[in-house]
Structures are given as structure tokens and as C-alpha cells.
Design brief:
about 750 residues, disordered C terminus, about 20% helix, seven-stranded parallel β-sheet, about 25% strand, alpha+beta, Rossmann fold, five-stranded antiparallel β-sheet, Jelly Rolls
Amino acid sequence: MAARFLIGQGELLTYDIPAPPIVPSKAHPYTLAQAKEYLVPRMLDTALAMQALPADACPEDVAVAKLNLHPAYIAKSFFPRDLLRAANLTSVGSRTVRVKPRSDTRKTAPEVCDTTQLFVAGTRAAFAKLPSIASELVDGSKPGIQLAEIETFDPMTIEDRIRGEIKATTSVFEVGLHLLPGSGADEVRVRFDRYAKKLGFEVNHQWQFPVGRMLFLAVAGPASKIPALARFSLVRAIRAMPAIRGARPMTRGTPVSVGFTLPAAAPLSDEPSVAILDGGLPKDNVVKRYVGRYLKSDDSANDIDDYNEHGLGVTSAFLFGPIEPGAVAPRPFASADHFRVLDALSDEEDPYELYRTLGHVEDVLLSRQYQFINLSLGPNLSTDDGDVHAWTAVLDTMLSDGETLMTVAVGNNGEADVATGLHRIQVPGDSVNALSVGAANRTSADWTRATYSAQGPGRSPGRRKPDVVAFGGSPKEYFHVPTRGSKPSLTATMGTSFAAPYVLRTAVGIRAVLGEAVHPLTIKALMIHAARSDPGANADEVGWGRIPTDLNEIIMCSDGEARILYQGLLRPGKYLRAPVPLPKAPLTGRVSLSATFCYASPVDVEDAAAYTKAGLTIAFRPHAAKTKKGARSAATKAFFSQQEFRTEQEQRSDLGKWETVLHATHGMLGSSLNQACFDIHYNARDGGANAGTGSELIRYALVLTVRAPKHTDLHGDILASHGLLKAIEPRISLPLRSGSVGS
């Protein structure tokens, strides 16, 4: 039997369809009169609190309040745009908070649940007029309806803005500032700089990151004055400057008594462009022949031995994976450029090193030279549900076009305190556009999460994190990499730092074998699609599962199996139908259908509660002949469970819509599939509100696997039935035996 490779060009089967009918509106928990009675006094208190702020803490006399929407109104269609416009206020950001509503019409809603907290800005004069404006609203008006959708209204406080513990000895901090519409980053920075200097703080002008409608700054000054600094009205968050993590090995590498043999052949392909961003390479090393360019982001800084060894291990993990002592290392799929982004100035000498390193990373991303990048370092900071960190913001913004696949190590803090959340994935592992990688403890089938590997959940959206895991080593089975020197000798180590480039090796292997026919975003979807875990595995520990070590499991189809790829662009507000390609003859017996959607999304950095600006609503229609009375389309059947993206207490009806990865598998009878299809609707939002059809196109990838054991040549039958589909033949001839290309 000839080899069965992936089936491509599924996007040629897709076509636009009209929008479905609009669903009637819901019941409201509060009347306008009840809303006025509760909110107007609080609006008055807010205005009075703002009058007490120092004038120089309110640039252009602007202050910021926080309002919580009732949990029934978190969808983008309920954004209070008309109310804010009537009051001359502007939304400058949002985050998710937990509230106990005063009243709730939702029968299944828990007592305490998630909702959206909006940050609204305006002049203090506008806030002073708000109580009277709210009092005069009439029933049925849009502003009146939107007022009744608000749960609480309060001023921003110092406590809202200070994140984590501020020790008396801390002297360097990072500050996130809101940018106002019509005000540039420089204008806001100058005003903040002026206010900060009066309190004894110095703003570092060299390292500042304007991302979206946020400005991230590094400042130095007395910890005792942080509460006063937090009174500046446009401050979103202040925290102690985190240290860099991942730069030093978890444990000191243990030399192995035996060496290994380098592969004689050159890398399999010279086409994929790959960058490793890490701690540099030792002067004497055995991987230099596989490294295309070696660049130092700061030529004036010296090397640090530990960082070099970390960079060598990470680079080796990409080139060879874990090396078996005494054996020949696997042939690299491609060479890589290595960027030294950590150096002697990173070694606790430069208090601004976190931002300096981010600047180096941003420079590589801005170059747009690389399709594949690995990052095994970042801030020593666990994910914050309420705010997006500068590192995550920069990465997600740069990766939002979907043209680059970046693997990111999630951190080695998995054994830290659970109650305080210190065990959760570390920034920027919460990126929605990168592939976040945790570590498995073994290469064998009885693997589990390595105990050190950071755990989920991530922020929402991006709740299922890590995305995947791969072998990263453990005390019972180490990850072997070369040690410094000109002879091939090994060091035993472990960490998510090595699992991440090991996953990138698989991604580049797919590209090397299949060529440009498979886009980097599609490769991300393929690997998630092929990831495996035990049915009872905790998603917060292993994400979608462990990446196969054999490339064949990803790029080839077995008997009775066909894997089809769709890749392309989606238009905002439109509905796209993606048919499931099936043979002309009906399928018999039990079949299974697996689907993985991945898309790259622009992000609203200031809106942690509405971070992804793009979301997909996906309806599965299994049988064309089964329709409901009066319906234009076939009946739908649930495919992607919303429970994947909520805890027991969370009841956000649209939560899964904004996740950039969706995956599920369902078993069914073959007779239940007749012209089956997925209807895909691209929802666009901006600042949490409906953005309409003027938003940008987004790149998507869909991977479908149909399994029908009674149809041995399902792959061939599907190709014969759909002339637009083509098997993706490998560009490179190599023996595709079990374990021959991915091990």
C-alpha cells in the first residue's frame, strides 16, 4: 500500500453562506429605576473621590473609574457605548473580576461568577455631571438600557493598581499606563515623568514599550512612595520589576561518562528559517556547524558561562532532541540562527534587564526574517488574570499575523504554592498567538507532567495552557544535551527550556518534509491535533497532550483514516461553510471525527477581559437532511464543549468563542454523516465592543481527521470523490518508518 500523506486544499471546498436569524433579546435583572436608585449615589461618591486627587495626578484633568457589568451582559453586543458617549466618557481597558450580583435572572447561574470590569476615563467635570445624566435617562433609550446592565460603579483605588508584594528594599518597578484616545505614548510619558519626579522616581526612557493602547515603563525610586505614584489616574498596574527566569539551569548539569556521535549528514533542509533566542553559545561547542548565524544583541556585553550552557542546551534540543548516550544524534531538520539576548548585564547587574531583554526579543520579531522561533526564558512572574504583561503583549502583537510559529517555555515553577497561584504558567507562556510548551517526565507511554513544569490555567482567553507538553527530562530520565568543549560529550539536565525547542524541532521537521504547502499556523494546528494524553488527564497540567515523537503520526494517515487541511483567511462578520469531505458511498459502522481550529488574533492589550479581537463561533451540522421546522440550514450538534474553558463556577456563555485553539473528537455512526459541515463565523471586537466588518482579516487553520475502520482506503476514496483535494507529497525523499524522522 502506497504511503498516505496529509490531504491539502480543503479551503477550496469552502464557501460563504448568509447569516442566520437574530436571536431575541434576554430578560433583564434590573429595571432602569432600580439601576438609578443603586448607581446614582455611587456615581456621586466617585466624582467626589476624584475631586480629592492632586491636579498633577490627573493629566488633562482626566480621572478613571471602574464599572462592573452584570454577568449576564459580558458579550460584546452589550458594551455600554451609548451610555459612555452620552456622559462623554471613554473605555480605556477591562479585566475579568468575580462578583456576586444583586439579582440574577439566569436560572443556572452560580452565586459568584465572572464578569467584565471596564475602566472608563473622562474629565473630572464629566464625572461630576454623570449622576444627573443618569438620573434623567428614560426607559427604552439605549443609554437607559445600558445603565441597567451595570452592576457597580466605583473610583479606581491605589489597591486596584498595585500588583503583588512591594518590599521596602525594592527600588525598580514596572508601570503600565493607559493611553487616551488622541494622546500619544510620548505625551502620556512626559506627564507621568513629571508627576513621578516630584515623588523621587526616575523613569527609564531607554526601555519603554507602547503596545496597543498601553505604555509599559520601567521606573526607579523609593518603595515607600509607590502608593502615591499609584494615584496617577492613568496607571493601570505597578509591580516590582520581576527577574529573568529560565536563564540558568534548574540543576547543575551532570556530566555523563559516555559521549555521543554527531550525525554525518547536513541538516535535512535549508528552507525553514529558524531563530533560537537564548543565552549565547560557548566559544568551544560541537553544534556550531549546524548554527547558521550567531549574533549578540549587545556586542559590548560579556558572556556568562551558565547562560552559554543554557543556550547550548536549548539549541541542541532543537537540532537533535534528547540525545541518547553512546548513540548517534538524530539528523537536524534545519539549521538555526542563535541570538544571544542574555549576557553579563543580565546577571543581576542591570535592574532594567527584563525590559532590555524584551527589547532584544522585539528586534528579532520586528525583522520578520524567521518563520520559526524558540524562546525559553522570560519574566519570573506567574500569569495575572487581571492584566496583560508587557512581554505577552509584545509577543502577541508581533505574532498576530500568523506568519511565525514561536514556541515558548512555560516555566519550571510547577511545584510552587498553589494557593497563591505561584505554580501557574509564567509570562509570556500566557500568549494566545504563541505555542506554550510544558514538560513531560518520560519518553515512554507512561509519561506524566514533570513535577517542575508550570501548570495552567492561563488567562481567559487562552485558558487551556500549556498548549502541549513534550519530554523535558526528570530525575528518573534526564534530557541529555552536549556540554561545552570541542568533543561530543553529554550533560544530563531537565526543564521546560528543553521541551519547547524539542517541539519546535517537530514543527520544523513538518515544514522541512512537506515544504511551503503547510503554513506555520497550520503546523501549530497539526501538532495540537496530533497531541495525545490519557482520557482522565488534567488539562491544566498537560494542555492538549504530548506531541508525538514520530513525525509519521502527524503527516501520514493509517488504514481507514484521512486527515484534511484547510488554511486561509477569514473576513470579519462573514459566515464560511467548511464541508467535511466524505466518500460518495455512505460510511458504515462506527466512525470518529476530530477537528482542530487555530487562528491568529490581533489583541487589545488594555482589555484583559476582551483580549483577543477575533473570535470564532462554530456550528457543526452533521446531516443535511435533518432540519428543524422553518430552518434554512441543517440542525446543529454540539462539537466543541464550552466546559473546556470554564471552571465549575464560571458561566460565561461566549467564553470558548474567543479561544484561539479549539479541538474535539466525537464518535458516531457513519449513517449520521450526510454532507456534514462546519459553519464558521468570525466575530470581531474592539475594546470589548462590536467592531463590525471593518476589522482586519485573520489567518486560520482547520485540521480534520475522519476515521472509519470499515473503510480501509478511506484516504483514496475521499481524494477520488473530491477533485479539488490533493495529497501533500513530501519535498524530500526519506524512509518514513516508525521513529525514523521524529525521534
